[in-house]
Amino acid sequence: MQLATIDVIVVAAYFICIFGLAQYVSRDRVGAGPKNTTDYFLASKSLPWWAVGASLIAANISAEQIVGMSGSGYAIGLAIASYEWMAALTLLIVGKFFLPIFLKNQIYTMPQFLERRYGPSVRTLMALFWLALYIFVNLTSIIWLGSIAVTKVAGINQDLALVLLGTFALLYQIRGGLKAVALTDIVQVTLLVLGGLIIAALTLGKLGEGAGLIAGFHRLTAAIPDHFHMILKRSDPHYMDLPGLSVLIGGMWIANLSYWGFNQYIIQRALAAKSIGEAQKGIIFAAFLKLLMPLVIVLPGIAAVVLTPGLAKPDEAYPTMMRLLPSGLLGLVFAALIAAIVASTASKINSIATIFTLDLYAKRRGGVDRGEEQERHLVFVGRAAAVVAILLAIVTARPLVGSSEQAFQFIQEFTGFFTPGITVIFLLGLFWKRANEAGALTAAAASVILSWAFKALLPTLPFMNRMGLVFLIALGLAVIVSLITRPRGATDTIDTKSVSYATEPSFNVGAIGVLLILVALYGTWW
């Protein structure tokens, strides 16, 4: 694939505009940058609903998800869309039940919540875990797989693409922190959705052979009806990936609750909202965008089955569909792909800096009452942590992620070893006051040990079902250990009694809309 001059101009314009916009929104009212940790790590707690919603999606969607889910659409079909559609339902739960507790208690980071609820040991342990996971697993995979996508389209050296993507993501947000990321994400998401819709429209138009998009969609569903089932039967060759009803009532909930509710680089956007009402509106906005994502990401992969059958690898589906684009539009869609990579990378960098600075560095210096000079110092530490994080990711990406073609799938499963325990710890922390530090640590240890044991002893058990089983056992163990050990009592400073779970009419109407759309989608494509 070759980029024409007009394509290069479009991509260059994207880089210039997004960098300039990030620097502009990073200013405060007197033209300077962030002065304290609230400014830098939580955007002065001033994000409007549209920035919260757009930033949630921009942090979530990256090149590996665009290319990977499109490839899964090619191999499996529409069933892979459950990851997007069930996430929309999960977001409603996060907005209704989790956010009120976090915002009422003025939580900045997830490790901070764990310390106030369980104790300092859990905070330090989880902060170190998340830093290692974010840098050496998530950040490396985003920039590595992103560099592969850029190399396939632009034809530049992959190591150069790796360095350029990481460096640009660092530079455009390093001055303004979360504000620079969140307030530019509306542009990033607009590009992402627009680029995906253009490819979807062109593929359906080609399938319609001049009769229109609807005719193209009808031809697609008639040609490969086996690719349009949401709930896979046990006899399906991809049942191990999406084990039937487990996507609705099983292990997918464990992964979704952990990711959308307790993941720092996701929930940080909602914690930075100007009010609980704005945060919840942003959640609804993100939920509707998740409903749209399969049209943007999965449909082009399914269309590739008919338009370009026999691809060597499913992950070639999205880049192959990009070849349908004329010059100019190719540059726009390529810019959208880069936007997805850069937005996710910048979000991850900012959250790494947040956890390191507030949960490790500031804690060791002691105290929460910090003067102006200390606050500025912590902002500097955050920027330095961001630089170190991306340098580590660039250096280690090839040996850690590039050593295996199945690296990303392994990373997802590796993360799943910890997910059940994390979900148990937070759910008990939010909704059961008797849970204590001993129970939390038991859940964390049980999650890892049981996941490894079941993987070895029950290799035919689908990954998603394994997560659900480990969650139930870890939950039971955490409850038992908490009951037979001393409660934390007065040192638990998380207030849940005075929390109001009432939501504004806009949230309620939006939530009903999301539920009705989900019922219609699953009812149609069951």
Q: Beta-strand percentage? A: under 5%
Shape: globular
Distance between the termini: 37 Å
Helix/sheet category: mainly alpha
Report the count of strand segments: 0
Instruction: Report helical residue fraction.
Output: over 70%
The low-pLDDT segments are none
Gyration radius, rounded: 23 Å
H/E element string? HHHHHHHHHHHHHHHHHHHHHH
Total number of helical segments? 22
Mean pLDDT: 90
Main sheet characteristics: none
> What is the chains' assembly state?
single chain
Report on this model:
The model has no long low-confidence stretch (mean pLDDT 90). The chain has helices at 5-25, 37-42, 49-60, 63-75, 82-104, 110-117, 120-154, 158-174, 178-208, 213-223, 246-249, 252-262, 264-271, 276-307, 317-322, 329-365, 372-400, 407-416, 419-431, 437-457, 463-484, 505-525. The chain is built from 22 helices and no strands. It has 526 residues and is mostly helical.
Features of this protein?
0% strand, mainly alpha, globular, 22 helices, 526 residues
Secondary structure blueprint with pairings:
Layout: H1 5-25, H2 37-42, H3 49-60, H4 63-75, H5 82-104, H6 110-117, H7 120-154, H8 158-174, H9 178-208, H10 213-223, H11 246-249, H12 252-262, H13 264-271, H14 276-307, H15 317-322, H16 329-365, H17 372-400, H18 407-416, H19 419-431, H20 437-457, H21 463-484, H22 505-525
